[in-house]
Structure to design on (281 residues):
């Protein structure tokens, strides 16, 4: 059986799926047609129902849960992994007036946007752009602040940029839960046994990758967008963890709280299904 599968070229995703899609483990009769795209594109495709299985930002999940279910394996959750708000200058909390300033955000449907909106619900001057363009936009005075994710967490300081607030810490202090950044979703129309098998295969793929780590496969390196191997490993260490193997009770609770946060910020949003019935058993 062939399934379409989408995830990003970032090291954490290619690390997770390498063994599965490159036949390093037995796929047990399943075949995957892979699409590598940035997470905002994957979010938009999820809204269109384009792929059978896909990595998405949990920020978009409230808009697609009527058609998709969350798998237990392959996601990105944790503590100390959240988006950062950066600027060109050191700014104290007393001086911070972000509501009217131009802020670059890595996509409208990203978890980063939702966490930013939770912290700054009155911000009105948002500029949505690809995450890899945000550091440059801040440096070039195109925006006053930027919300950074992925490997930019490891590169902004070397470029002279300053952290204003850690949106992940804000979430953790408010909820006491891990930060639900992204998950693997699958169409509800796919046979449940196929979904369970796929979920198990993703876990086996991660376990295979951990056994060979810190070695980086050519698949991870060739898709890593010119970052150094040191940054690749930092990326993997930050975003691939026990929650990637199994979202678990705390992970599901975090997704539920984020989902309810979205509904409070968007009270007109109507849904057929509840978040509680949106996880693979």
């Amino acid at each position: 059986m062939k399934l379409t599968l989408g995830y990003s070229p970032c090291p954490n995703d290619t690390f997770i799926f390498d063994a599965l899609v490159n036949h390093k483990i037995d796929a047990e009769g399943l075949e995957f047609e892979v699409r590598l795209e940035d997470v905002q594109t994957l979010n938009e495709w999820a809204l269109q129902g384009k792929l059978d299985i896909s990595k998405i930002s949990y920020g978009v999940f409230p808009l697609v849960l009527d058609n998709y279910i969350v798998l237990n394996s392959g996601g990105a959750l944790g503590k100390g992994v959240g988006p950062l708000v950066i600027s060109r200058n050191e700014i104290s909390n007393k001086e911070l007036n972000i509501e009217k300033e131009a802020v670059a955000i890595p996509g409208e449907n990203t978890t980063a946007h939702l966490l930013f909106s939770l912290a700054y619900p009155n911000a009105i001057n948002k500029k949505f752009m690809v995450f890899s363009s945000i550091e440059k936009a801040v440096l070039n005075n195109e925006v006053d602040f930027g919300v950074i994710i992925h490997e930019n967490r490891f590169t902004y300081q070397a470029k002279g940029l300053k952290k204003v607030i850690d949106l992940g810490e804000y979430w953790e202090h408010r909820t006491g839960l891990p930060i639900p950044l992204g998950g693997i979703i699958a169409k509800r129309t796919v046979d449940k046994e196929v979904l369970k098998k796929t979920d198990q295969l993703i876990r086996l793929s991660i376990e295979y990758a951990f056994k060979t780590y810190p070695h980086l496969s050519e698949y991870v390196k060739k898709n890593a967008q010119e970052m150094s191997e040191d940054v690749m490993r930092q990326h993997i260490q930050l975003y691939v963890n026990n929650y990637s193997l199994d979202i678990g009770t705390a992970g599901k609770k975090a997704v539920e709280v984020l989902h309810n946060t979205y509904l409070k910020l968007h009270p007109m949003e109507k849904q057929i299904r509840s978040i509680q019935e949106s996880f693979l058993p």
The first strand starts at residue 2 and ends at 7.
